[in-house]
Specification:
507 residues; globular; mainly alpha; 4 strands
Length: 507
Amino acid sequence: SSDLARLLGRHKGSLGRSRRVRSKARGRKEGMQMIVSSLTALSDALWGTPMIVILLGTGLYLSIRFRFRYNFRSYAFHFRNTFGRMFAHGEGQGTVSGFAAACTAMANTIGVGNIGGVATAIVSGGPGAVFWMWVSGFLGMSTKACEIILGQRFRVKYSKSMDEYMCDRSFVMKNALGWKKGAILLAIACFTLGPWTDCVQTESVVGAMQEGFGLDPRISVAVLGVTCFATIFGGLKRISAVMEKIVPFMALLYILGGMGILLIHLADVPKAFWLILESAFTPTAAVGGFAGATVKDALRYGIARGLYSNDAGTGYGIIAHASARTDHPVRQASWGWGEVFLDTIVVCSVTALSIILTNVYVTHPGVDSARLTTVAFRDAYGIFGAWFMAIAITIFAWTTIVGMYYSCEKSINYAFGDTERNRVAVKIYMLYYMVPCVIMYDIKADALWAMTDILSAVYVMMTLLFVFTQQKEIMRLVKDFWDRYLPAYERGEHPPVVSFGTIEERK
């Protein structure tokens, strides 16, 4: 009887521990749900009607002021000066060629935002979100041009701790507005919070490799972390050299893969375009696994995901293009047109049409982000499509993480100045930067996108402040290039290079 009592006591103790474990698990789950709900609520508030109106209004205002030169009017010039000069060394002062700088910028733009972001936009906002992505891209070409001009105009040259031309939001805040305290706070916020947006990339890689190869997430994360660290350790020149080889090649392969899906469903392509246009202005009804979406949903997710994809208005253009070697800041701004065109009008459209034509957003409820695009390619090409997407997503996410590092590093450079401390801080920061990539791979996609949207909204507010306060200087440079410099250059007069970078760095 005593043995039986002891056994019963142990059993009761075991049951009690089991209940406590389940209770703690429920508590953690409920806590995570509360965090996700809070992040989503804040994201929705930031990306409400005012933000949409401000972004679209700014793009339209700048397009009108530029007389639509960066939308459609001077497309032949922009094409010649971007895709037509891909291998040109470049004239003037700078650290890397204009093409290399653009590839570093496109490492941020052409990536998981084009694959996972577009999928999330369609799942949350319906097919109509694609139309608003196009609108954000079309008007964002002018906004991106302003960013690039600001980066070239207010860049500095570091020569003690590193041999590099550079600029970021903090340099503009200090050199253009004179806000030294605000600039240092902004730099700290950028290099502290910036790496956490990479969680979106890691989540997409883990999901894609599981979907395509059934690979253990820990293996995916380990390989991603090691290879990214090895690349960023080489600094700007290694980053830009890698980007100018990988980004165009993978973008071309992905476009060809998506075009194959369009050819398979060629008869349905006109219907897909009509569905996108119709859903942009009328609510999308629920069907199959799709819960339906309002016009407001289409606007909100289309603009937000379009922005995350092409970065127009976030200020990343300031950073990536500041190092470019060019004869005039406004010539480098042509690469902004090329980035947004390739990113939003071409690559995002390929993803969107692949998802809509295969109807996977309806037939696969609960599947979101990059996994949904992977399902679309598997539906079209079988297991080879899933393998292709797993590899493509991994490479795109890899390049985005590397490109984003360069953006964050510029905030470190500003905070520590052109000193020996800057050199040491950069090496330490590389380790911190990789932390979110390797530990935050299993958080729900909606939480990650909410965090990313919140940070993007803050960046947008700062960038638009710079654009509007410096529009007089921007327009001066634009007028100088189109009315004086370019006509003289095309007449063969060899006008003096217009270059900046001698502004005294922060003491």
